[in-house]
Specification:
Keywords: Cytoplasmic vesicle, Golgi apparatus, Membrane, Protein transport, Transport. The protein is α+β, with helices and mostly antiparallel strands and 193 residues long. 51% of the residues lie in helices and 19% in strands. It has helices spanning 25-40, 83-101, 106-111, 113-123, 134-161, 164-175, 180-185; strands at 2-9, 14-19, 49-51, 61-68, 71-78, 124-125, 128-129.
Length: 193
Amino acid sequence: MIKAILIFNNHGKPRMSKFYEHYTEDTEQQIIRETFHLVSKRDENVCNFLEGGLLIGGSENKLIYRHYATLYFVFCVDSSESELGILDLIQVFVETLDKCFENVCELDLIFHLDKVHNILAEMVMGGMVLETNMSEIITQVEAQGKMEKSETLTLLFICQSMGQSQASRFSSKYLKLCSEDEQSFYGFGTTCG
């Protein structure tokens, strides 16, 4: 079972974390720091598996990671998971991110964290691997994106039919979800009304 999925940069700044067991927020932060120190001090030419840190279960768990450019992708797993299978899963995750963001970089993870979590949710749920087929994952994420855009446009049309005072309270939140071209195409300015 997958216990946690962590992404952090070369300086230890967390860019994404997903825990499949309950920990307090302080403990989660300590796990991230401990994992960074364990993984970052290793040479590039050693294997990508190591014993888990004390906070995440010690020798009962493993840390399986890959280092891409400025980011570490770390999966904390129990002994029932295959190390090579998890390495492949990390590769599929990164390649999927790369396809969805057209050459993914650290800034994509910072500014589109919700989409990163959606991609991950198509692959892993409750610590169990659901899907490893990149085409299927991308299809589901694109369908979800279309549905979100449709909901946004529906809300914008509702907003347009409201009075100025009601609409201005929540319009700016939903207008951020549409590009400027879409806003002008549908006749919206910076506020509804």
